Amino acid sequence: MTVREATSQAGRDVSFRGWLAQRRDHGGVMFLDIADSSGSVQVVVEAETSNGLYETAEAISHESCVEVNGRVVAGRAGNNEIVANDIRCISSARKPVLPYPRSKFDVFDEKHADHVLRNYHLYMRNPQLIAIMRFRSELMRIVRDWFYENDFIEFNAPILTPATLYEEDTALNIEVHGENIFLTQCAGFYLEAAAQALDRVFNMGPSFRGETSRSKRHMIEYWHIKAEMLHGSRNDIIDLVEAIVAHIVEQCQIGCADLIRAVGRGFCADGARIPYPRISYADAVDHLNRVKCQTNFGEGIGADAEGVLEDLLGGPYWIVGIPRSVEPFPYVIDPDDRRVTMVADLITSNRCGELLGVAEKISDPDMLCERMMEKGKWESPSYEFVKDVHQAGCAPHIAFGMGLERLIRWLLNLPHVRYATAFPRLVRRSIYP
Amino acid sequence: MTVREATSQAGRDVSFRGWLAQRRDHGGVMFLDIADSSGSVQVVVEAETSNGLYETAEAISHESCVEVNGRVVAGRAGNNEIVANDIRCISSARKPVLPYPRSKFDVFDEKHADHVLRNYHLYMRNPQLIAIMRFRSELMRIVRDWFYENDFIEFNAPILTPATLYEEDTALNIEVHGENIFLTQCAGFYLEAAAQALDRVFNMGPSFRGETSRSKRHMIEYWHIKAEMLHGSRNDIIDLVEAIVAHIVEQCQIGCADLIRAVGRGFCADGARIPYPRISYADAVDHLNRVKCQTNFGEGIGADAEGVLEDLLGGPYWIVGIPRSVEPFPYVIDPDDRRVTMVADLITSNRCGELLGVAEKISDPDMLCERMMEKGKWESPSYEFVKDVHQAGCAPHIAFGMGLERLIRWLLNLPHVRYATAFPRLVRRSIYP
């Protein structure tokens, strides 16, 4: 029986297990908050009638796992509580960690961050972090169900790969059987081959970046939602992404209201307002320069500039036509403006920054050759299979890729992507626990 | 419109896209098999009435992506076929790969294995491999839905980890920010911490082994289905695994009949016969020695010995009580026979070998200390967080771990786990494509 189930049995005798989250000793009467994954309940022990139970309860350390037997009664605050007739310690907590993991403290407060990250194996018992993990699980289910309902096949691309999407020095490299290879930065090369067989595929799994950016939206290990489908244009993939994001927002509001409340930072429903405004990269650069946020054509748009554009357009919004200078090689060059690619980036609201990119991907082997030469990838034997796919009757295809933790951060209004996953792997931080 | 959809439109004019899988030129009449992910259809081109179309069709290379316009008619063999009035090449295949990926050859024949693995990016267009990939996607969905329906929360353990379950020399190691760490062999350490917060958790994601075994059931990268739950005994986790395996078998038979037929190697439904017979490790060793299959108490049971036991018991079957000498440290020692752990292994039928292990896991910090000392892990700072979890009111918990590719191999009767995934990563084989 869970704590929640026990609490609901008004008037009955119940037996349940949980952890000691808090104890308040009022001299003669003691209140214990016993918590599990379902919630928390107040257990009352009275010295006069307890027959030694008071002393037992007094000796239990915070976070010890206990079994409680008692009667469910109506408490003063209107919630049911438990009058204990027996408490047994199943597993005693020997080493206190402060603040107590299941106690009410602001887990997102910067002053706790290092301590929480260092002791994540214990702080995942915190109610706010439990709620985020449950939300993450529900969100993954919602996303996958959308893919299944729209005829996508789940495809697991390998993690170990010879072919990086970005520069090799931004990848994590590993030696296997004497070969120097990499952890995947992006499943795209494998998904485009898979789409040529399966038409519509998606991949949800870990990706790795060796970048040095210490921003609030980067981790070196994260979960990557990738999809690839045959035929269609950039507008088609923009429409598809708007449909999936709006669907996610709606489903979270329907199914995750309790979890959102438990996280306690509200919910961002901006993604439901489709279609999102679009601005071309060229117009964005013009606007930024007009308002003295200097940006040179061909450069990436930084976090400050994203904010300026959010003030102009509201969020989320699309930046359409990202320059070929900043994009890696797999994306089609815009025939109407050969300075830019057929890529669009979706920037979220509330200064959360980029969520995802969509693209028309190259199917023509000659265009592939041009772009691989431009990016210095043409001579590498690691990309032979990518060339093969493009020389073997490659159908035009479109794609998108989204960071799961960025999505969670945006929806739950978290101060950093590190709170969107358990055991986050961060730049220049020890891999521990 | 897919090929399958087009084929169903008897009497109508249709337009669809696909790849040229086969061409048979009978002089004056040509038959093209055009395939996509949904299937294949015969397209007829007659020289007399074709107005140049015959010559166009003649020039198209195998595996080129084409658009076909034509009328759907009843063919001689009873299947619908398409009489073409236009064929347009969308993307020409420039480099032939033989046998043609979408042609009918035995993709599982050992003589093709190296070639297929080297060109997997093209051979994933083979109908049998397409069927396996679709089956894998369906199977993952079935497994996850079972977990969700049984109140498990999906939890993503990190891939980058300081703590290996087995010996470090059987792990893939990687340097990140100057630290020597590892790719996860098993999510167990993180899942047991998560279970202390979330009660029931599962993890589906990649695991890595640096082992040198070149058997038909090992890869260095594979997908690992792991679950961990609070309270309960070894019998409870045995019951749970039998329930999930029987459920999987039943759901595959209901939902995947077409895919199983397309793979063409039958389906193994042995997993539906629950409960599975059990033999203690000690009895197994006695039996093996009686039939002259020499096995010393305390050693692992090899593939030949597994087969001898399958002949005795039928399969699948459980070996209960695996010796502490061969198991890593997290598992409870059997109080009735301290030579063995509270671990049981499930061995499949048809000589497919071990599928999974179940266990009662240690919650008592003193037993953890004893076992970590025994395995030489006690002094390592990488396991401090594991000790912390056990000293912080650790509730008893049970777990299982299953290789997804082993499950697929068993169910679909595949000759090697490498066919159960795209782009398999195999021992002593180049990481390519």
UniProtKB/TrEMBL annotation, chains A, B:
Question: Which EC class does it fall in?
Answer: ligase
Instruction: Please verify whether the record's keywords include Aminoacyl-tRNA synthetase.
Output: yes
Q: Which GO terms describe its molecular function?
A: asparagine-tRNA ligase activity; ATP binding; nucleic acid binding
Reply yes or no: does the keyword Coiled coil apply: no
Q: What GO terms describe the biological role, i.e. biological process, of this protein? A: asparaginyl-tRNA aminoacylation
Alphabetized, the UniProt keywords read: Aminoacyl-tRNA synthetase, ATP-binding, Ligase, Nucleotide-binding, Protein biosynthesis
Q: What is its EC number?
A: 6.1.1.22
User: Which part of the chain is the Aminoacyl-transfer RNA synthetases class-II family profile domain?
Assistant: 133-433
Q: Which InterPro entries match?
A: Aa-tRNA-synt_II, aa-tRNA-synth_II, aa-tRNA-synth_II/BPL/LPL, NA-bd_OB-fold, NA-bd_OB_tRNA
Pfam families, sorted: tRNA-synt_2, tRNA_anti-codon
What the entry lists under PANTHER family is as follows:
ASPARAGINE--TRNA LIGASE, MITOCHONDRIAL-RELATED, ASPARTYL/LYSYL-TRNA SYNTHETASE
Put simply, this protein is called Asparagine--tRNA ligase
Query: What is the organism of origin for this protein?
Result: candidate division WS2 bacterium ADurb.Bin280
